[in-house]
Amino acid sequence: MNFFTDIHFGIYNLWWFTVFYFIINTAIILMFPRHNLSRFLNVPKILYISNANHVLYFIFFILTIFVPVKLNSIVFIVGFTLFVLGILLFFVSMFYFAVSEYNKPVTEKIYKLSRHPIYLSFLIISTGISVSGASILLLSVALLHFFTSYFIARAEEKECEKLYGNEYINYKKKVRMFI
Which DSSP string do the residues of 87-155 spell out, in sequence order? Predict the structure, then answer.
C-alpha cells in the first residue's frame, strides 16, 4: 500500500464502491418506519465532532474518485471481501434498528454483539474500499472518520443512559462498544 497512490480520475476508480454504499444507505433509510427514522436522526451529537465526521467522510468520498481500484490483485480481493462484509453488517444493523421497539433500547440480534454495529460497519466498509485501492491515505482518512464516530457514539450512549436508565447501563456492561 502506498500513501501517494496513483491519483487520477477514471472509470475504474474506487468511487463505484462509495456510490454503491450511498445507494444502499439511502434505500435502507427510505424503508425505515417513520417513527424509528426520527429516533435515528434526533440523537444529540457533539456538533463540532459531528461536523468533522461529515467532512472526513466527504473527503474520503472525493478521494475515491481519484484512486484506482487495484484489480487482479490480492489487495482487491481482501478489500472487496471487507467491503461486502461491511455492507452486510450495515444492512443487518440498520434492519434490526428499524424494526426495534421505539421506546426501548436496541439490544437484540446483532446488537447483542456490538453496541454500535452501524459505526463498526462504516469502518469495515471504508477499510475495504481503502485496501481495494491499496491507499494508506484513504485508510488514514477512514480511521480518522472512525475516531470521530467514537466520540459521537459516546454522546449517543450518554443520551441512551438518560432515556433508558439502568436497562441501558446493564446492557453497556454486557456488550462491547464495537467488537
Answer: HHHHHHHHHHHHHS-TTS---SGGGGT-S-HHHHHHHHHHHHHHHHTTBHHHHHHHHHHHHHHHHHHHH
